[in-house]
Structures are given as structure tokens and as C-alpha cells.
Amino acid sequence: MILEKVNSPQDLKTLSMSELTALADEMRDVIVKKVNTTGGHFGPNLGIIEATIAMHYVFNSPVDKIVFDVSHQCYPHKILTGRKEGFTNPEKYLVYTGYTAPEESPHDLFKVGHTSTSVSLACGVAKARDLRDEKYNVIALIGDGSLTGGEALEGLNNAAVLGGNIIIIVNDNDMSIAENHGGIYDNLKLLRDTNGQAENNFFTSMGFEYHYIGEGNNVEKVIETLQKVKDTDHPVVVHLRTVKGHGCAVAEANREAFHYIMPGTLDKKDKPAVLPEDYNSITTKYILDKAAKDKNLIVVNPATPGVHGFTPDFRAKLGRQYVDTGIAEEHAVAFSSALASQGAKPILAIMTSFVQRTYDQLSQDLALNNSPLTMLVYWGGLSGADATHLGSFDMSLISNIPNIVYLAPTNKEEYLAMLDWSVEQTKYPVAIRVPFAPLTSSGVEDTTDYSKLNKSKVLEKGEEVAILGLGTFAAKAKEVKDALKNQFGINATLINPVYISGIDKELLESLKSNHSLVITLEDGILDGGFGEKVTRFYGNSEMKVLNFGGKKEFTDRVPLATLYERYHLTTELIVKDTMENLKCTLLKK
Amino acid sequence: MILEKVNSPQDLKTLSMSELTALADEMRDVIVKKVNTTGGHFGPNLGIIEATIAMHYVFNSPVDKIVFDVSHQCYPHKILTGRKEGFTNPEKYLVYTGYTAPEESPHDLFKVGHTSTSVSLACGVAKARDLRDEKYNVIALIGDGSLTGGEALEGLNNAAVLGGNIIIIVNDNDMSIAENHGGIYDNLKLLRDTNGQAENNFFTSMGFEYHYIGEGNNVEKVIETLQKVKDTDHPVVVHLRTVKGHGCAVAEANREAFHYIMPGTLDKKDKPAVLPEDYNSITTKYILDKAAKDKNLIVVNPATPGVHGFTPDFRAKLGRQYVDTGIAEEHAVAFSSALASQGAKPILAIMTSFVQRTYDQLSQDLALNNSPLTMLVYWGGLSGADATHLGSFDMSLISNIPNIVYLAPTNKEEYLAMLDWSVEQTKYPVAIRVPFAPLTSSGVEDTTDYSKLNKSKVLEKGEEVAILGLGTFAAKAKEVKDALKNQFGINATLINPVYISGIDKELLESLKSNHSLVITLEDGILDGGFGEKVTRFYGNSEMKVLNFGGKKEFTDRVPLATLYERYHLTTELIVKDTMENLKCTLLKK
After folding, report:
1. Interface pTM, i.e. ipTM
2. Residue contact A207–B359, C-beta within 8 A
3. CATH of segment(s) B279-433
4. Global pTM?
5. What is the CATH number of domain A3-265?
């Protein structure tokens, strides 16, 4: 095993070309086995092994600085930079994160997880170097899928004129998470088809020196070109043609499905039988039914179809009523808003974490124009996710923008009723926080008129304590109510607030007559969220308010149970805090 | 006067070429006179008169849809679409907004004011048309300066493959607000220099059909080309070469200064004498002093130098220590964050309204990486501005992102101390809300240690009522205190919270002993802002809290005095609300 001898990039420098190639194969085996055990990004890492070896062979990390885009393709890099055990030793499989992490290694420059940032970050690294007249290489490794993100394009535009050394390696595997979309890809194809020789070249048009590597999964070929551009004194683009999932036949043949795999994927011979109904399946069913009847219905998605269950079959069925914008969240919001303004019925499906790309578009292109868009926000809520993919900030982000109605359904029937109301109404930009939770059902069709904005639902009338359980925390609210009843004989009022973006002032006012405490439960950070609005309402009254939710912080793969303990979000702790407050209040009475 | 006969685009269709040209000159005179009286965008409108006439001559608005980018160049369009009087009749000069406004005319599609949105919006309009199999032209008019914004580039990438009619007119006057920056401009220059014939073409590389108009201020020439592309069935870019400020010698010669002019600019023969000191001038002085001593100091600005007083002389003095990223706010944040991570000392200057472009970059590229950036946020606060340029949302946006320290200075000495602390510290991403107000001075050097996060300053100790006056509302807080004293004999405690992003829990706790009411004053919307955090802290205590600030809404050129009345932000109304609450409290005691 060559890999046994490789503990740092320095160890590569003495290997022969054939040893480097053999090393790539060893690394491939290790990554396949590890990722099939733990789950993780599969195709992107298999495709970039040879180029990573070549980068570390040619450059001198960490003196030379390599900035990874998204960094979901950093597994080979981690293996070569002292973190091999995280891939070879099953006991250490979970020690390292799936993204670059400066706290793990000086070879990692940034905590990254969103796309399209590497060129801008590399520009900053290069410019800091130039301010001090230092000399080293700064390299950005960016995938073709990431190129369409506005931040990447802004970065390229600036990188081209920054002056000084910067090497942008465009890893072109002709895929985003799913297939690519956009005019840039016509040019990448032309460049691939002409072996990089076409005169019309997106990169040289901007002023970059340009090199093409047709065999990006051949270590020697990549080394050859990187040696040419090393120590350049001006901006260079290296266009590297690789194969996503390289060396694993099933991944090469199913590039979208093998972008990210769940544990054991390679061992499963058969497709699973019929999957249970979930929020994804009821959404796609609703959409297909509706779209068949109404040609104005259109689904817009910025390059994350898998997240929403938008299978290739679903996309094909929708035909021109489905637009994948590529990784381009800003465009997706503005585009959808304009569709809505012209009488189309757009449903924009987007992940919580990537809504963050669109604050200004939500504010200016959408809310200011009051376009009746339906935006489905997926994966919202506290979670044990990586710090780069938390779903806990969306309520603060979306609900403080004027005009947007942000809804928090608590079960299947409510969700479908909200969705249909939103699609058909023509007055408001509406966002719906699709429950990131198992499907629950009330068993009864929901006939609520959601155009009565900010009208909460009183589920169970009681006294003394009122519990507002927002969206996915409705079930928790019910548990708290039951515990208060069973343990302390308190008959609390149970409320489903329904709207994240506004409070039901009339209801809140009425609670004053026979309640002394209101508690709010929300599945996200408290800062700027729903509970604070309730508290502000009661600020100058006798009503006491306790807000339960997350803290304003980045958490990194902290198990949800730990977070619930930390934030006092278990039923037990909520009841405890409630009773403590209540005793104080009763004592004073 | 030909203009007298022109009341709608239809009236153009019967005019001869020479009449159209004469009309352009008449419109120029009208715009010059009007804008010199009221202030407004000058150069951009003078440059686009001929092309606007040509567009309305060739196309059939409002059936054909024209989407303006930024829409600061829409004055000629307004003149031709029934709003002539807003430019010819001084009494009606202020009737129409300076941007497109659907409520004014069916010829205006969107409320717009931020850059780089037109292509995405036009894509939505075109796609809605195609879903219904309707036929008409959709035109986006975008300036070269706006091209570098991520949203524009995302839009172009998608427009190229959307299918169907879309005509993107790139109005290339070789200027942003100031000069352009970026690799794209190398290509625009090449295309201009080759009369559009260069093989290497940013637009055709993406798949657009491309047309070049070298004489963009010649009505006939523009008409000629637009007639060729009218009713196209695929995406087209028309590259239009115009002169910013065309036909006004002083504006042509001073394109940056005449981008936007104040009333009476053309009448002023002499430059004003030495300007009084303000927050801009003390900032630029600080920067020049510091940069001369420290080569790691660098100023980053996304294309708005004039807003910050970054004159051409200032920029020249900083040399490589100044980077204008072009209109590219996302890149500017990521770039600056990376600079900071590598030991440089970046000061990123940005307008409140455009910070909205950067939520995700603030969160992921900056805060998650804890880079010690200094971000100066300009023009924050409630104002009588256009709905597209409000400064009231930044506190909610920035202060709910983890790790970012957001500071609200109340006077010159505090601001300079914060700025210097921020530039020299290495632990936190720091944002400072530069007071958008006349300079005030305490007369005493500020020696506060701002690394003690969230430590408020007690300015005057009192009892019963505590007043927290944040940033620019510090003076208002003092007025309220004085009024309470003078009118009611109440000796209130006066507090400068200092930090927007966190509360001083120790101080707030201590207030409980001898205060019954806390009032918070903040210069922005209440939702998600500072006051709510204070209220949440006191939610389960006996302390009453009143939050004073703006409402979550878009206001459009509503005078500040009206807003202060509406939001109860005059000293009189704050005192009135305070006393009402206090009486209730005292009655119950």
C-alpha cells in the first residue's frame, strides 16, 4: 500500500507517476468503502482524486493556499493532509467533517458548505498576500455546477483584474447536483469539444489565461499543466475535464443519484418498494395534479431537485412547467416573482440554508412588488446538521421582510390547504415552511381561510397558561399541555399560531383575561423570530412570556437531543421552566 | 415643439426620423432643467434618450414589455408614456418617482431601484408569456455597470437557455456610478473597439445572438437594429454604445460627478469652500492616516465611492490599498472576509440598502469563519427615501446572524474609537452603523474597551424609567429624559446600548431593583431588531418594556416627520406613551 506511506503532501513529492496513479486507486477504494458506510458525497470525491493528488504534488500546501468550493469534494484532500485515518479506520470515520475545516488542519482555509464562494475567497487570500509583497500560489477549485452562482460570477469578474497570482481550477464534470442549466454550459461544451481551442471562450473573454486538460482523471496530465501555471503572476483558469464518480461504474452511470449517497447504497441490489407518504410526495402529487389542469402553474428550483423529491420522471412530466435555474438562488426568486406578477402561478422550491442567498431579492424583487409567489422552504428547523447547512435562521430572515406571509403548517391537511390557497391567491408573496418532519395527519380536511392574515387557531381552550406551538413544534406544545395537565392539573390553552410573519393581536389581547403566562415554542433561533413578536406585544402588560427556541449560534453536527437539552426544548424542561415561572407569579399574587 | 404632440408611445410612430431626433433634443432640454431643479439621476438619463425613443418607436408597449434595470434611467420613458408633465411642469416635478412604478403606468412593470435585476425579471415575464403561448416582445434594458452583479449574471446564464423571445439591451456607457471594474469590461471594450466583430464575445459564448450598435445616441441607428431583432424567437443581446450625459458637455466631461446631481448643480460656477467635518470626512481621514502606516489596511467598496466620500483623489492615494469590486456586494463581503482571515485589515464600506445583497455571505463566508472584518454600514435609519432605498432593515438583517458584532456609535469620538478597535482586533467580524446624521461630538476622547462585548454605557443614573437610545437615537433618548424630568419630575436612567447585536444582561438585570419601565428607541424597524431582544429578556419579569421604532413596512418617499408621528417617535409622543404606561403601573401598585 502506497497510501500507508503518505501522511502529508510532502510524501507525494518523491513518488513516481505510476505510484501516484496507484495511490489514486487506493484512495478510491478507501473513499468508496468509507462513504458507503457513513453516507456522504460520493461522485464528486471519486472524480477529483487524481486532480487532488496532482495539486498537492505540484503545489506546496499550506504555503500555497487551496480554496475549495462547497468543499464537498475535499475527501481526497483530507486523506492527503494528515486525516487519512478518518477514511481508513472505521472507528474514526466520523472524526472529521465532510467539508474543509480550518480547526482540523492548516491545509484547510475556510469553513465552507455553500456553493460558488471559492473564487471570491481566493481573491481575498491573494490580495492579502500581495499587500505584503509575499509570494505563493493561491488556487481555487470550483465545480462547473457552482459556476452559475452569482457570487462565483462576481468573483471571476474581479479575479480577472485583481493582478497577481491566482489559479482557478474549473472542475468540469458536466454535472451540477443534477444536470447543468444555463448558457455557460454551452461554452464549456464547446471548449470540451474543441479540446479547449475554441476562440469564443467565456474565460478568456474576461481576460483569464486559459488552459484545458481533457484527461482530468489522469494524474500525470494534470501535473503537466499545473506545473506550467504554477507561480504565474497573473490570473489563470485551468479547465479540467473530469468524470463524476470516476472509477465506480454504477456512480458513473447514475451521476445524479450518486452525488450524495446514504449508508449502504452500494449494497442494495433492489430499489425500495413503495415509499411511505411524506411531505415531499404529497407536494409532488399536488403539483402534478394541478399542473395538468392549469398551464400557468410552474415549478422553479435552483438546482436541488433531489431534496424535494423532484425526480427525473417528475421533471419530465412537468415539461416546460418546470425550470431548474441552475445554482442561482437570486435569479430563481426574481424570476419567480416576475412569473407571478404576470399571472403565472410559480412554486419556488428552495432549501432553508440557501434562502439565505436571496434576502435582497425577497425584499426588492418580490415583497416590494407584492407578487403572489408561492415559496416552499425545505429543511427548516433546529438540527444536528453541519454548521454550513443549518435550518434555524429562516424565520428571522423571511418574517421580518414586509409583505411576505410566512406560514407554518403543522400537519398534512393544513399544509395542503395552505399550498392550494397560496397558489390560487393573487395578493401576497407567500412562503410555507414545509415541515422537515414525518408526515402527521389530522384526518380532517382543512377548510381554513388563510387570507385572514395572522389568524391563529385555538386548538384547546384553557386558562392560566397559553402555549403557542409554531409549525413543527405543535406536537411539542401538545405534549407540554398534557404534562401540565397530568402533573399539575393545569388546563392550558393550546394555540397553533399558523403565521410566522405576524401575530394575532386580538387573540393575544383576549388571553389577558384568564391567563398569566404565555409560552412560545419555535423551531429555530429566537433572535428575530416569532416569539419575540409575541413578547413585544405583551411588553407593557401584566402578561408574562417565556420564549422557547434556539440560541443565535452556529452549531456543527451537534445532535438534536443535545441542542434540545441546551435550549430547554425538551417537554420536561419546558414544563419545568413554565412551572418555575408560574410559581413566582402565583407567589406574588 | 414636437414633444407637445407626444403623449404616448403611439404618437411616436407617425414621426419622421428627423422629428424623432429633434424630439430627443427637446426631451434633453426638459430633463436637464427638471433634474437641475429637483436633483436626480442626470448622466444616465441624458445618455438613454435616443434609445428610449427608438424602443418605443419599434416596440409596442405595454403589450411588449420593457423591464428597466435599476430604473434610474427611466425619465425619458416616463416622458413618453403619459407622464410628461412631471418633467415639463415645475408644479408637477415631484408627482412621479425617480424609478419605474407600476402604480403610475401600465408601461412600468416593476418597482425597482437596486441594480442587476432586469434580466431575471424579464425572464419571468417571458416565461409567463410562453406558458400561455402568447406572443410579444420582452425587453430588458441593463447598464454595463449593472452587469457585474451576481443576479444579472445568473439571469444572463438562464436567459440564454430559456427559449423564446427575450431581448437584452446592454446600455454600455463605459461607466458604473464611477468607473467600471472587472474582466467583463475588457470584453466590452474589445467589442466596442472591433465594432462588435471580435470572435471572443462574452454574450455569444453563453449562446446569445449578438448585435452591436456603435452609435447608440443616434435614434435612426438604434431603430434600425431593434427592428431586426423585434419578434425574435430566441434570446438576443443588443450591445448599445452610448455616452453618459450625452449632449451636456459638463456631464460628458465629468461622468462620475454627474451620475446623480443635487438641485442647482449646473448653476454653480465655483466649487464649494471647505466642507464641514462629517462622518464621511472623519472616516476618510482615519483611513488615509492608518493606511500610510499599515500596508495591511485595505478599503473594499462595491461601486459606491461617492456615498462614502471616497473621491478619486482618496482612491488614488490608497493605490493598491483600495479595491472597487464593481457592483458585486456578495463578492465584496467574501473577498473582505478572506482578506481578514489572512491578516489584512479590510474596511468594507457599503450602503444599508445593498447589505441586503449579502445575507448569506455575512453568514457563511464571514460570520461562520469569524474573520475580523470591519464593515461600515452607511445610510442606516428611518428616512423619507424611496421604497427601494430604505435604511431601516439592516439591524434585523445583521444582528441576528451569529458572531457578528454590530455597533451603534452615537458621536464622533465613539465612532472613531470603535473603528480603530475594530480594525486592530482579530477576534470578531465587526459591523459599525455609521451615523447617517450630522456629526456630534462629546469633546472627550473615547477610551472604552469595545472587546467587552455587549457592555452598555449608563450615561445618567436615575430610577423608575430607563431609556435605551440606540445609535442615532441617543439624542432623542436624552430629549425624552429631559422632558420626563422637566414635565413630570421623573429622573430617568439614560443608557447608550452601544451594541445592536447583543444585550447587556447584567445591566438589564440590575435595572429591576429600582425601575418599573424600560423604553427602547431604535432607528429602524422593530421586527427582529434590538428592542425585542430587551423585551424578551424581561418577558418573565415584572419589568414593563415599551419598544419604539419603525413598523415592518415599505414606505415610499414619506417624509421623516410623518413617519415619526406614525411610529410615535417624536419626543412628545414617546413621553406621552411612557407616561400612560407608567400611570397604569403606578395605579396598580
Report:
1. 0.97
2. no
3. 3.40.50.970
4. 0.97
5. 3.40.50.970
